[in-house]
Amino acid sequence: MRSQGRTLFAKLWDSHVVADLGDGTALLHIDRHFLHDLGGSQGLKDIKARGMKPRSPELTFAVPDHTMSTARGRAGTTPAGVSLLQALREETEEAGVRLFDVGTPGQGIVHVVGPELGITLPGCVVVCGDSHTCTQGGVGALAFGIGSTELAHVLATQTLVQRRPKTMRVRFEGAMPVGVAPKDLILHLIGTNGAAGGTGYAIEYAGSTIRAMGVEGRLTICNLSIELGAKMGFVAPDDTTFAYVQGRMLAPKGAAFERAVAAWRELSSDADAEFDREVVINTADVAPQVTWGTSPEQVAAFDAPIPDPADIEDAGKRATVEAALDYMGLRAGDTMAGTRVDWVFIGSCTNSRISDLRDAAAVARGRKVAGHVRAWVVPGSEGVKRAAEEEGLDRVFTEAGFEWREPGCSMCVASNGEIVPPGMRAVSTSNRNFVGRQGPRARTHLASPAMAAAAAIAGMIADARKMGA
Amino acid sequence: MEKFTTLRTAAAPLLQENIDTDTIIPMAKMVGVSVRGSLGQWCLAPLRYLPDGSENPAFVLNRAPYRGAQILLTGPNFGCGSSRETAVWALEEIGIRCVIGSSFGDIFFNNCFQNGVLPVVVDREVVNELAAEVEARQGAATIGVDLEGGVITAPSGKTHPFTVQENRKEALLLGLDEIGQTLRHDAAISAFQARDRLARPWIYEAGEA
Ligand code: SF4
Q1: Taking burial as the number of CB atoms within 10 A of a residue's CB, which of A21, A203, B114, B144 is the most buried?
Q2: Residue B157 pLDDT more than 60?
């Protein structure tokens, strides 16, 4: 009798089980634990209060991102942000945890720097007290967000109690249409499957589109797994991944790298592996997406009509759509294209890597931001910032009238006074268009970097494909 | 952790879909070195307050019989989005001990168990039925939740069964702390790391050749 093939998920999960706790639950070993400014110092204090030290400080890495001002010289970091940074410095120093401090190489948004520095590697189990940890699945890691009690648990034990999720494979098949970005693929998937479409699943992204995609695009796709309801999303590592990892600051080197690659080559789903659910998307069907509502599932092609709540039978769903349109100040039947915008934000762990900035710069080059628009570009890390400046992208942006800023989460989360003002409409390359996410009463439209740049130039939602994307 | 055994209280229906943790506790209200204890007033702030800061009289938790409810009846995907555990703390601070819905954000769901708040998953029809019964009595009705028995008792007396993962249930019933539980596996953790260090040295020696 031949045994059933195994999924990549099963290989990642099973190889990290320290103890089977029964009822589908396991104690998992954690290979990489990231701390950031919001909850990192508190977690270290929590275990200290219990008389404990981090069990494996060498597997723990800290980087401030959420509450750091992204203005030049970090001017304007709020008092709360300043004290969180100070606390992170003190606690990591005492605990022997490596910190990538502001102003030093390596600082940036935690999920950008994890893969960029070669800390997150294929086959790792990675956690962080942040739901977009799933981003890091793009290099073939099992990466997921945790809460603050779980964070303390990981510090104290280097393990986590987790229930085994179901498995889902999403296959994107076919070549990417011109002017369509990885962001569009994942928004389309969420739009067609709902913000809870992946709840309870671990998602493997596969198919010819993904195989042909660079690692940065894969990171973008995995980033929005949580917006589909899935805590973890990942891509099987391949030669593209190995080439990406090679030479990074903390990646294995020389013989150790060769040995690691040999192990990583085993990390894919067997041909006869079965998934609890499978979804296939024909990539050619996907057009540039823009969200019209207050959930990432409320999304459509930028030139499609906004749905009419009157057509929705279920009362709960209808009320949800009505509330969203009311908040967004939009009318059913209108299209997003041509909607006037006030702010544009290019950044966040979704879309702040060098390939994203190149996409946006291709649209911005030689053009000017519309007079009534304020537009920011916030690189995801010191590394991205330096690379962009070497290519002259910073000048492309500033000459067009964009502000070029320091790395951090910035307007994605509005935790540092960097907000979209009340009632203003923003196109943002981030991942959440929730009510108030970018500031009280701010109206957020999620889109790709090229579409965001096009909106900045046109002063309204516009077709980036007609502007060089 | 606070124990959870049984509960009988008013229940507030909040059936909108996809209520995210940013809505449950806005970022601007949770940033700081020690925020626990000050979160309740901002719990569900975008729904609870009008733009001028006054209470929104139409919002369920601002209406008399619902104000002290310890149970929330929630729409699908409640607690989606950010991993912030402050969302659970904020709910706890306004007295919520149990959320009943058809699905929850995964991280929020786990965070509830860490704080003695019971998330109960039942079919959407059951949530809607419970909400309808409560609303028919303008909120002047109570719902019972028995964790040990796995039963919800509707105002009408009708019962609805639910299940909770065994180890989660035990921890809630006894108020057990997860770190303490895991430390019973201390030797297994050490053995795992010793084995793994030989198989995958690159995990433990970041950046070395
Ligand atoms: S960029 Fe936004 S989504 Fe990403 S970690 Fe920062 S706040 Fe979270």
Answers
A1: A203
A2: yes
Domain residue limits at A406: 290-467
Q: What is the pLDDT of residue A244?
A: 98
Q: Is A38 in the pocket of ligand 1 (CB under 6 A)?
A: no
Grouping H, G, I as helix, E, B as strand and the rest as coil, residue B125 is helix
Residue ranges of the domains in chain B? 6-163, 177-209
| Within-domain flag for A227 | yes
Chain B within 8 Å of A87 (Cβ-Cβ)? yes
Give every strand in the sheet of A374-377, ordered side by side. Answer: A403-404, A374-377, A343-346, A425-428, A443-446
Q: Is A431 in the pocket of ligand 1 (CB under 6 A)?
A: yes
| Same-domain pairing of A249 and A389 | no
Question: Distance between CA A95 and CA B62 in Å, rounded?
Answer: 45
Least CB-CB distance to B77: which of A87, A131, A196?
Answer: A196
Q: How many C-beta neighbours within 10 Å does residue B3 have?
A: 12
Q: Does B50 touch chain A (CB under 8 A)?
A: no
Global confidence as pTM: 0.96
Question: pLDDT confidence of B208, banded at 50, 70, 90?
Answer: low
* Cα–Cα distance, B20 to A432 (Å, whole number): 10
Q: What are the tens digits of pLDDT across the range A260-316? A: 999 999 999 999 999 999 999 999 999 999 999 999 999 999 999 999 999 999 888
Q: Do A193 and A49 fall into the same domain?
A: no
Tell me what percent of the residues of chain A surpass a pLDDT of 70: 100
Q: Which two tokens stand for residue B126?
A: 């059951």
**How high is the mean pLDDT of chain B?**
93
Q: Give me the mean pLDDT over the A55-66 stretch.
A: 97
Q: Are A346 and A318 in contact (CB under 8 A)?
A: no
A378 lines ligand 1 (CB under 6 A): no
Residues of A in contact with B76 (CB under 8 A): 196
Q: What are the pLDDT digits (tens) for B73-86?
A: 999 999 999 999 99
Other C-beta atoms lying within 10 Å of the C-beta of residue A21: 19
What residues of chain A, 348 to 387, have a C-beta less than 8 Å from chain B? none
CA-based Rg of chain A, rounded to a whole angstrom?
A: 21
Cβ of A187 closer than 6 Å to ligand 1, yes or no, is no
Ligand 1 centre to CA of A430 (Å) is 8
Looking at the structure, do residues A312 and A450 belong to the same domain, yes or no? yes
Residue A48 has a pLDDT of 96
A148 and A62 in a common domain: yes
pLDDT per residue as tens digits for the range B19-31: 999 999 988 887 7
- On the question of pLDDT at B34 being above 80, the answer is no
CATH number for A387: 3.30.499.10
CB contacts < 8 A (A, B):
211
Superfamily covering domain B6-163? Aconitase, domain 4 (3.20.19.10)
B6 touching chain A per CB within 8 A? no
The reply to whether ligand 1 has any atom less than 6 angstroms from the CB of A353 is no
Contact A115, A78 (CB under 8 A): no
Q: Out of A195, A252, A260, whose CB is closest to B80?
A: A195
**Count of domains for chain A:** 3
